[in-house]
Amino acid sequence: MNVWHPKSLPSRSLEVMPPEGTLLRLIYTMGQLRHIMEPFFARFGLNSPQWGILRILQRAEEGGENALPQKEIGRRMLMQPPSVTALVDRLERMELVDRSASDDLRVRMVALTDAGRQQISEVLEEHPARVHALFSGLSSGELDTLHELLGKLCSHLASFGDTPEDSSHFFAKEAKVLPRAQRSSDFK
Description:
Structural class: mainly alpha
Shape: globular
CATH topology of the domain at 48-124: Arc Repressor Mutant, subunit A
Low-confidence stretches: 1-5, 175-180, 182-188
Number of strands: 3
CATH class of the domain at 48-124: Mainly Alpha
Strand order of the largest sheet: 1-3-2
Number of helices: 9
Strand content: 5-15%
Distance between the termini: 29 Å
Largest sheet: 3 strands, antiparallel
Mean pLDDT: 85
Order of helices and strands: HHEHHEEHHHHH
CATH architecture of the domain at 48-124: Orthogonal Bundle
Helix content: 55-70%
């Protein structure tokens, strides 16, 4: 089996076989995507997570929901509530979203403003071409395969549950306790 090693990595230490090597490739690829997309979003005064929130709200509107609970935005973004709050605070200061209380005063609803919709429209004038360029190194069939495999992996990972406690049964069968002598020899 071939070992993958991009020329731009600083060390050959990432020449690791699957499945750990696959995880490292995913992490490295996400870093590359952030490196490419952050300057793009910065041109519009946004960062990637802020864009993610705007798109979630836009898609919700398209589906008939004029606002979403802040907690639901966090769930969709896989983010903790304090991080979502900070992002929504910033988007609210930028006048791209509006927050209001729902019937349940503990629930904060977030909705796009007209300025937010306009901002999305401006980004979307260039965004599809940027995304297309990102994947232009893959054939149509390869892109379909990648899409299918990532969907399959995502579904599998969702079965681990929302908390570390939910997924502990997956890792219990993987854990192996080595004799003390072997554990210490790993660090020599």
